[in-house]
Specification:
- With 156 residues, the protein is an all-alpha fold.
- The protein has helices spanning 2-21, 25-36, 42-57, 59-69, 81-96, 101-116, 121-155.
- It has a single domain, classed as N-utilizing Substance Protein B Homolog, Chain A.
- Helices cover 81% and strands 0% of the residues.
- The radius of gyration is 17 Å and the shape is globular.
- The termini are far apart.
Amino acid sequence: MASRRLSRERALQMTYQWAIGGAEPRKVVQDFFEYLAGDTPQQVDAFAERLFLAVAESNDELDAIIERHATKRWAPDRLALVVRHLLRLAICEMRSGETPAVVVINEALEIGKRFDGEESTRLINGILEAARSEMAGPEAGRQERRRRRRQNRQSQ
């Protein structure tokens, strides 16, 4: 799934460009892919564009989720810009349900290492795991606990 990682990285770059430049999201997409000029496969471009536009559309909602799960030490306004954008992308992708949350979180950790360094992975993981749990809801938590209990009984 290297093409999906490349898509996520491209989407991250677009969110960064959007935040710095302030252009309309469609203009960001146009300028971004014009600059690349066919440098990436079509499916990479399509997923990156879809992910970026979804983040641009629900930016405030995504920030609210991040704020609920960030610790006092790492308030959203103190997060590195690239980390904040990566969290937005990952939460948005998890909300879509298109990719399993565990895959999205793992990809975010790998991309975080590349763009921000190893030290941000604990923070990224903590916020994304909390967001995943929130999205799954209490019933999913109960089902997971029941599954673990059954596994424990069977292994005894």
